[in-house]
């Protein structure tokens, strides 16, 4: 069965942001070793006790409680996984649907209640529909709570016919849990939604190896559930670091096409692309001639101001070159790929101004089919106080020089100076995507985004 463990490959100290080797007071024997994570929230890491105490006193003692609550669904999923693995060789066939409710589960005894909810939903009586959906799911919620204290149900005990029925019933329930989680997240019922996502995932994992499993449908729903659980963490600043744990578990179940917990875009290209978070300057080749566009990033801004002026792409201020004639002409001549991607809806070219005292919190871009280039225009004098982290490495801008990186990796920006930072930001096609397949790849990303939105509006039958 899949390895269910939390993310532990921390590279930077949660207190000071430095790797272990950069701590002057750390013994040589302790340098370049693995950071130790907080035993309570599992989501902060330190090279030594001094950093841990400093972080605790500077606010982690309050933040830790929020993180402990956010990580609960993952710990419950791990507890289910551990309970299933106790002395079992075929643990993927073990369910938290208890023995005393398996009969009702197989015949979907309360299906009329769910169907009435669907009818209410179709009649735009959403509040009434949600009440019925939640009532239908209540027995399963109780089963999830009591599962650790009860004898697990072994699916292999069923006849072949009932195994097929179990597979159908588990998939049906997983889809209903997922839909209810969508609605609860939209209604700010975060804790309940996350728990339903964990329940949905456990059912999908249980049946994915059964002979009767419709593997493509199960894979699609598993991707959706992991993605939604990840987004539920990323949308709340205090919980955002938990997304690394979710992504690691998703990777271990071969979901979302992710390969690195720090690279978790909404859409991963179907063609294999090298996973390079930051591209050194000697590898820049821009002038070849051959969720959206990033504006949602404003939700992760803390501080004074982050403003953009769009030259090409959604929200462009002018279709002509009158607003920035020299810049636009140079981009047309030397970086036409940036314009083509912007016009196809996959990116933008913008002037990006970040005021002093502003922090853009860690987040991931929507897709890995593009790279992002920053051309430094106005750069504060202190490179240590104005910089960008991509994956686990910090970088600084230089006026007139490019920074090139894959923004599908986790990244954040800090400007702790009193000066503004201005860059020309360009989205570029990933160089490994052939020009003949670009339209197909981008349409696949946009189609997947549209499908993910539509699923939130139509309850499963």
UniProtKB/TrEMBL annotation:
The keyword Zinc-finger applies. Pfam families: Asp_Arg_Hydrox (PF05118), zf-MYND (PF01753). Residues 13-64 form the MYND-type domain. It comes from the Eukaryota. Keywords: Metal-binding, Zinc, Zinc-finger. Belongs to the aspartyl/asparaginyl beta-hydroxylase family. PANTHER family: ASPARTYL BETA-HYDROXYLASE, ISOFORM L (PTHR12366:SF29), ASPARTYL/ASPARAGINYL BETA-HYDROXYLASE (PTHR12366). This is MYND-type domain-containing protein.
């Amino acid at each position: 069965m899949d390895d269910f463990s939390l993310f532990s490959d921390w590279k930077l100290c949660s207190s000071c942001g430095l790797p272990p080797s950069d701590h002057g007071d750390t013994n040589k024997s302790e340098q370049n070793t693995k950071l130790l994570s907080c035993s309570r929230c599992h989501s902060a890491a330190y090279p030594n006790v001094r950093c841990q105490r400093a972080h605790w006193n500077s606010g982690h003692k309050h933040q830790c409680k929020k993180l402990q609550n956010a990580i609960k669904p993952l710990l419950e999923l791990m507890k289910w996984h551990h309970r299933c693995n106790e002395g079992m060789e075929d643990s993927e066939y073990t369910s938290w649907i208890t023995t005393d409710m398996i009969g009702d589960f197989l015949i979907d005894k309360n299906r009329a209640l769910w169907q009435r909810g669907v009818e209410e939903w179709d009649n735009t009586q959403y509040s009434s529909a949600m009440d019925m959906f939640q009532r239908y799911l209540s027995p399963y919620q109780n089963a999830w709570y009591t599962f650790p204290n009860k004898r697990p149900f072994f699916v292999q005990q069923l006849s072949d016919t009932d195994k097929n029925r179990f597979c159908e019933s588990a998939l049906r329930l997983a889809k209903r849990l997922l839909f209810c989680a969508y609605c609860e997240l939209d209604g700010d019922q975060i804790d309940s939604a996350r728990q339903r996502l964990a329940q949905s995932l456990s059912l999908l994992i249980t049946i994915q190896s059964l002979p009767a499993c419709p593997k493509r449908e199960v894979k699609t729903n598993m991707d959706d559930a992991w993605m939604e659980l990840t987004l539920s963490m990323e949308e709340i600043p205090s919980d955002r670091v938990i997304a690394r744990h979710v992504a690691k578990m998703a990777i271990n179940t071969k979901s979302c096409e992710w390969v690195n917990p720090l690279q978790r875009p909404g859409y991963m290209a179907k063609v294999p692309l090298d996973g390079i978070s930051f591209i050194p300057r000697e590898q820049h080749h821009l002038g070849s001639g051959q969720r959206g566009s990033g504006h949602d990033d404003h939700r992760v801004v803390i501080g004074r101001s982050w403003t953009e002026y769009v030259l090409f792409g959604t929200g462009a201020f002018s279709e002509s070159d009158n607003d920035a004639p020299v810049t636009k002409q140079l981009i047309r001549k030397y970086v036409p790929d940036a314009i083509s991607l912007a016009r196809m809806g996959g990116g933008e070219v913008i002037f990006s101004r970040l005021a002093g005292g502003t922090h853009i919190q860690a987040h991931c871009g929507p897709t890995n089919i593009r790279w992002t280039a920053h051309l430094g225009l106005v750069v504060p004098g202190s490179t240590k106080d104005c910089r960008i982290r991509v994956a686990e490495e910090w970088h600084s801008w230089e006026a007139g020089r490019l920074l090139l990186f894959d923004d599908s990796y986790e990244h954040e920006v800090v400007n702790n100076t009193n000066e503004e930072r201005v860059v020309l930001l360009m989205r570029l096609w990933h160089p490994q995507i052939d020009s003949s397949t670009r339209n197909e790849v981008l349409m696949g990303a946009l189609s997947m985004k549209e499908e993910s939105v539509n699923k939130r509006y139509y309850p499963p039958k």
